[in-house]
Amino acid sequence: MGSRPNFFPVLDLPDPKKFPDRGPDAGGPVADGEKLIWAYVWIIQNGEGRGGKTWAAAAYAESPEAYRASKKWEKDTEKDHVWWLETEMAHDSDAFRPSTAALATAMALVDRGGGERDVYWWTEAVRLKAPPKPAPPKPPSGRSGTAT
After folding, report:
1. Residue 117 belongs to a domain
2. Buried b (16+ CB within 10 A) or exposed e, 94-130
3. What are the pLDDT digits (tens) for 95-144?
4. C-alpha separations of 135 from 132, 138 in Å
5. Cβ partners under 8 Å of residue 114, min gap 6
6. pLDDT score, position 73
């Protein structure tokens, strides 16, 4: 887990209309030779809105605890070995705000190889990215979409 970041610097927010109970997607790199046995993740964000009203958003996730189940949330990409978990919103949480800093923290049991295991805990500032905007609807075929 070392001194490199353990979360990606930007985490994606799901579309709240499609996934109202989901929080940001949490993820990050896994060091060479290491495997995550389990992980718990918390993401929090708070601030003050217009008129001085404070708000707070929170989400959490828990990985499967079976080593073989890690294939569902720990993956090899073309470049890296990464972990990824979908978080769920905490009860009574305000909505997360894109482009606003958040604090992400996680605790994980890590298999370092050769029978060595360690528990790591890390906390990092992350930025949250809004979900992509849906494409505008296409006009029916045969129509240009403009009034005549």
Report:
1. yes
2. bebbeeeebebbbebbbbeeeeeeeebeeeeebebee
3. 999 988 999 999 999 888 888 999 999 999 999 999 887 767 777 776 55
4. 9, 9
5. none
6. 61
The 10 Å Cβ neighbour count of residue 74 is 21
Q: Is 119 in contact with 107 (CB distance < 8 Å)?
A: yes
**Does residue 112 sit within a domain?**
yes
Longest dimension (CA), the chain: 74
> Is 73:30 a contact under the CB 8 Å cutoff?
no
d(CA 141, CA 35): 52
Residue 58 in domain:
yes
Cα separation, 27 vs 46, in Å, equals 21
Beta strand segments in the chain, E: 10-12, 22-29, 35-48, 54-62, 74-76, 81-89, 101-113, 116-129
4 occurs within a structural domain: no
The structure tokens listed for 37 are: 């046995």
Place of tokens 């606003």: 100
Number of domains composing the chain: 1
Structure tokens at 141: 């075929």
Residue with tokens 């979900």, as numbered in its chain: 131
Q: Which domain holds residue 45?
A: 10-129
Q: How far apart are CA 76 and CA 70, in angstroms?
A: 12
